[in-house]
Amino acid sequence: MVFSEIEKIVPGENRVLLKEKLGELNYDFLIIATGTRIAPEETPGLLGELWRRDIFDFYTVEGAVALAERLKSFNGGKLVVNITELPFKCPVAPLEFIFLADTYFKKRGIRDKVDLTLVTPLPGAFTKPIATKMLSGLMEKKNINIVPDFNIAEVDNQNKQILDYEGKGVDFDLLVTIPTNKGSDMIERSGMGDDLNFVPTDKHTLQAVGYENIFVLGDAANLPTSKAGSVAHFAADFLEENLISAIKGEPLKAKFDGHANCYIVTSYSKGTLIDFNYETEPLPGRYPYWIGPFGLLKDTRLNYFGKLFFKWMYWNLLLRGHHLPVTSHMSMCCKERPVSEKNK
Amino acid sequence: MAQKEYAGVTVDVNDEGYFTNHLQWTKEIAAAVAKEEGLELTDKHYAILEFLRNRFNSGEALSIRSINKSGIVDVKEFYAMFPGAPLKRSTKIAGIPKPSSCI
Q1: Which residues of A touch B66 (CB under 8 A)?
Q2: Are B25 and B19 in contact (CB under 8 A)?
Q3: Cβ of A153 and B83 within 8 Å?
Q4: What is the pLDDT of residues A166-196, one digit of tens each?
Q5: Which residues are within 8 A (CB) of A293 and not within 5 positions of it... i.e. 6 or more apart?
Q6: Nearest CA in chain A to B65
């Protein structure tokens, strides 16, 4: 085990150079799992005078703690949640935050004094139509506004406003930002990344494009699916199989399908669940299998308890490397396309 | 598969009007698609379309941010030239698929 920062990968020579002259590592096969980080510096004005005063992120411990403190003293006004650009990790997190903020302010008895708005570059609450319809309906019911198709260009700290590239502005008293997400700077130094430092990766084999002995797992890859823990978990099974095949010099047979699933907490007592892959958008139904007690795209108390139980599963099963009683590839069992969508 | 006629040529398109065969594209066709979109193409527009097509052909991902690397316009100008949804509109006119970052 070597604990060291990495200066860069030299993929053409199968070498990893370590920082601070700790030397280098040679490899036959390499797995890159360097994740993603927030990059608020990419948006002009975001790190201005209001940063951590009235502008917060929740993807860092410091940001989340500071935001929790600020919420205690927030007694009314415009709370704006803004998604800067795609992709970002855990695409349901901004929705969960805004749903929980709704419940939090209700509990404090000041919900009528708080204006909650989600400002997003997407055309609606989520990326895919059926889930967007369900989640947009839920937001409407909870009196949460959506400003769609908004690509933030800058933050005006003086006037407390976010502006998009066409000059459209949204006022805020408290801004919760989901900043640009980027892959590791080391990937950029290695010349292996795309515009956002994510590694171009074959979406089925998980092999880095152009390098037969490099595989990419989790958020570091540019896979066209969610950057989520569930994706990394499911993908790992396919990567393992393909890595073994590659070592043996055999063809890569395991094909990852982009499987993702996520609970979405919608209040302090209810939640919903989505399960999807590259080809199939989140559909209503049951999970897991036909016995599944959890309702896909349904807002239920049981889903909320499922989420709480998952916390135990995470620490006691997942982190210990135990297999979960669900399939790694997405199953169409017990999913149903709504009648209105069937003819599309 | 749906078909549409632009500048006297029939091309294959998907439900949303994006070309399914980028080889069917020509500059004249681009002008006709742009007209349908309510846009008049200038040399700068064509330079952007060419940048997008080259990037698509080399297998690189397209994003709003990648326009900064074009050396032709920055993101703000890109919005001014293809108002509303610049990447969606410009890729449609460039005869290439809708980028996944739009989905």
Answers
A1: 195
A2: yes
A3: no
A4: 889 999 999 999 999 999 999 999 999 998 9
A5: A286, A302, A306
A6: A195
What stretches of A108-228 show up as alpha helix (H) in DSSP? 129-141, 185-189
pLDDT over 60 (residue A343): no
With CA atoms as reference, the chain A residue closest to B75 would be: A165
Residue reference for tokens 């940063």: A51
CATH 3.50.50.60 domain extents, chain A: 25-36+185-248, 44-179
Q: Which of B25, B32, B12, B34 is nearest to B86 (CA)?
A: B34
Quick one: closest CA in A to B69, which residue? A195
Q: What is the CATH number of domain A25-36+185-248?
A: 3.50.50.60
pLDDT above 70 for A110? yes
Question: Would you tell me which CATH number, out of the four given (3.50.50.60, 3.30.365.10, 3.30.160.250, 3.40.50.1370), belongs to the domain A44-179?
Answer: 3.50.50.60
- Could you report the predicted ipTM of this complex, rounded to two decimals? 0.74
Which of B68, B74, B79 is the best substitution to test chain A (most A C-beta atoms within 10 A)? B79
DSSP calls for B16-60: TS-BS-GGG--HHHHHHHHHHTT----HHHHHHHHHHHHHHHTTP
CA-based nearest distance A334→chain B, Å: 25
Residues A210-241: pLDDT tens digits?
A: 999 999 999 999 998 899 999 999 999 999 99
Above 90 in pLDDT, residue A342? no
Average pLDDT by stretches of 10, chain B with 103 residues: 90 93 95 95 96 89 83 91 90 90 49
Q: Tell me, what DSSP letter sits at residue A30?
A: E
pTM confidence score: 0.89
| 3-class secondary-structure state, position A1 | coil
Q: Look at residue B103 in the predicted model and tell me its pLDDT.
A: 41
Is residue B103 less than 8 Å (CB to CB) from chain A?
Answer: yes
Across chain B, how many H-helices and E-strands are there?
A: 4, 2
Q: Which chain B positions have a beta carbon within 8 Å of A209's beta carbon?
A: 59
pLDDT of residue A344: 46
Q: Is B60 a catalytic residue?
A: no
CA distance A200 to chain B (A): 9
